[in-house]
Amino acid sequence: MIKPKDLSKIYSLPKKVIFCKKCVISNQRPRIVFDKNGVCTACNYFEYKKKINWKERENELLKLLDKFRSKDSSYDCVVPSSGGKDSAYVAHELKTKYGMNPISVTWSPLKYTDIGLKNLNAFNDSGFDIIMGMPRGDIKKKMTREALIEMGDPFQGFIYGQVLFPVTIALNYGIRLIFRGENAEAEYGGKQESWDKKLLTLQEFQNVYFSNYSLDFWLQKGFTKRDLAFFYPPDASGTKGKLCDSYFYGYFRNWSNHSNYYYASKNTGFTPNERRTEGTYTKYSSIDDKLDTFHHWFSLLKFAHGRCTSNAAREVREGYITREEAVALVHKYDNEFPNRYFEEFLEFTGLNEKEFWDIADSWRNKNLWTLKGNDWVKKFPVS
Q1: Which residue ranges make up each domain of the chain?
Q2: How far is Cα 74 from Cα 90, in angstroms, rounded to an integer?
Q3: DSSP class per residue in 50-93
């Protein structure tokens, strides 16, 4: 039996559960803030975006691009890319609308889906060079397993590479400019001070995306520096260029998942899945990795906030569905277990079913869940 985690202490979660008056997000999402009217920062940020002068933001982008645009057809920016709709939109628009010469950098998924590979190849065929980082399989599997146990998130090892490997490529090529997609802290409900952030330092990435666990943490868990060498970016002093900056493309351009989907479908051959993703109703978000659904399912255990909640809340803000429709979708799909790739997940991590469920139970937030018969149900379902 694994000792249960004190989730309220680890994530500083409030005791009283409240839901946003506009969408379906609760105050159990880490770092989210609600105003005096009971509206979350994600919804308030969406309203704030309506007041942004996007022409001025685009002019700011143009000045930045003019500063770094290559004059000899060499690569002048890095776009971390999976072949998915969002990164495809960023890379394609930078190349075709703004005359940049991006190099796309992919960190290999834990286990590719067929549709993920199809979309990556289609993106490649649409006119983009791709560098792929693929760490040793034994290290990738071991890190996934340990991250699940230590952090309740099997994707944490992947996130290190996803964030850091593009920096490695940029430094090795002497490129000063990296464009990432949206500012997730602003778009999905972080603190208000994140709203106008155009770039993040590596330290800020560590605080937000690495759950405050630097790569050095893994040295205490039996990994060696040699094991982790592929994850660490090089020292900037030994490269051709100065330290690069990572900008959020969503700071300069009005970000919309739906618009990105249609853009990528038209211009880079992006294809949605034929069936919806388990735990939600959509067919086009994060569909390249078979194990991605377990990242969202463990989020459900910890915060009673699953994949469907995130998708539905976003679509309420953008006006595609009503709050009432979102509530119904959350009730129908949010608690769904990702059975489709469960056997492959166990094989990948080397866990048996009992070990998996012991780990899952240690990360289930008992303040938010109650056992009814043989089923765990949310104590505070959205309404």
Answers
A1: 7-50+279-378, 54-258
A2: 18
A3: TTS-HHHHHHHHHHHHHHH--SSS---EEEE--SSHHHHHHHHH
Residue 349 to residues 26, 142, 236, 302: CA-CA distances in angstroms? 31, 7, 34, 20
Q: Which CATH architecture has domain 54-258?
A: 3-Layer(aba) Sandwich (3.40)
What are the 10-residue block averages of pLDDT along the chain, 383 residues in total? 87 95 96 95 96 98 97 95 94 98 96 96 97 95 95 92 91 93 90 87 65 81 90 60 79 94 96 95 91 96 96 96 98 97 97 97 96 94 96
Q: How far apart are CA 352 and CA 55, in angstroms?
A: 54
Strand partners, 80: 105
269, 126 Cβ separation under 8 angstroms: yes
Residue 146, beta-bridge partner list: none
- The pTM score is 0.93
The Cα 307–Cα 303 span in angstroms is 11
